[in-house]
Amino acid sequence: MRVLRTIFRRKLRAFLTIFGITIGVLALVVMGSIAEKLSLLVDGGSTYYADKVIVSGMSGMAGFSTEPLSTDLLGQIEKVDGVTRTSGSIMMLLEEDPSTVNLGIPANINATDFREIGYETFDSEVVEGRALEADDRGKCVVGSDLVTKLDAEVGETIEVRGKEFEVVGILGKTLTAPDKAVQISLKDAQYLLVGTLPAAIRDSAEADTLITSITVFLEPGEDPNEAAARIEDRIDGVKAMGPRGFEESVTEPLKIFNQIIYAIAVVSLLVGGLSVINTMTMSVSERTREIGVRKAIGASDGAIMRQFVAESAVMGLIGGLLGLGLGAMIAAAGNQAGAASATELFLVTPRLAVGSVAFALVLGVLSGLYPAWHAARLDPVTALRYE
After folding, report:
1. In terms of CB atoms within 10 Å, which of 47, 81, 283, 314 comes out highest?
2. Which ranges of the chain does DSSP label H, i.e. alpha helix?
3. What is the rounded CA–CA span in Å between residue 384 and residue 106?
4. What is the C-alpha separation between 267 and 279, in angstroms, rounded?
5. CA 57, 61, 67, 72 torsion: positive or negative?
6. CA-angle at 34, arms to 321 and 103, nearest 5°
7. Which helix (H) or strand (E) segment is 168 a member of?
8. Which stretches of the chain drop beneath a pLDDT of 70?
9. Beta 181-184 vs 108-112: how paired, if at all?
10. Does the global pTM surpass 0.85?
């Protein structure tokens, strides 16, 4: 309590110093929560790609493509060495003209041929209703991030690309791609996909054979990166991507993006640290006679240093806690505002929360070291004569 009383002896100056730390931590929490959300999405993708290969058209990127492929490729790819199973799927954007700025995965429609059952290890849980079945028509399962946007309830209908679908299930939150997917049957997806094709090829397209990507499951021990290379060598007109391709096209660019985000936030916090140095230096100057009295009655240099370092550390801690609280509130408000458009951008994780407050505390301690060292070196006689 004595430390707090000393800090708030100059209330306005203490408030402004703590406010500087608070703003820095707030920036770190808000911007860091965006980086955390993106990192979790990419981690989910890395897990998904860890043991398989995704085949798409030549225009595909990170396994996502709307370029039509034929189901005839399934059998051709299964003849490649090391391949044990293939599964065709369709992935397309939920909105024909997406206008919302989205830093993560866009809302999408997803459908598979169910050939992955027994091979796919990446699973998402249905928390309401039931999972989609192969013979379902006009039915869908909705990802958790799209529930508010689509006003989805089990037993009710939603509109997907101009067609009504009955909601039979709601997926639990995974913090990965399925959160933004509406799952429908492959037949329904093929019908929707045909409608997106240019008029010149729409009439001649065989809807029952259309897919947009193929998931390739491998024999135990097979290297997915080598398998991807073999598939591209054997099959013309496709792009095959394993975990290395995902790493190069998604993970590495995201790391740079996250580093930029954190760098901006840390610079904001360092500016707050400068205000602590300024405040503590002024405090030492104003309390020179007090320091002289304390040293004259026996206070050691270490005791003087601990006193000033403790004060700067407490200011850093208070600013850190206030910044964390405000940052978490802004993140929650941002997610609530974005729920209607399925753009929940923020995720305040425990490591971000603890790291932000710890960084503010360490910054407070470091910022107080020089003023404390200067105070401890004051000569008591000179300090007592100071006016």
Report:
1. 283
2. 2-7, 11-49, 72-78, 147-150, 186-196, 199-202, 224-234, 243-246, 252-286, 288-296, 301-339, 350-376, 380-385
3. 68
4. 19
5. positive
6. 165
7. strand 163-171
8. 60-64, 98-104, 383, 385-387
9. parallel
10. no
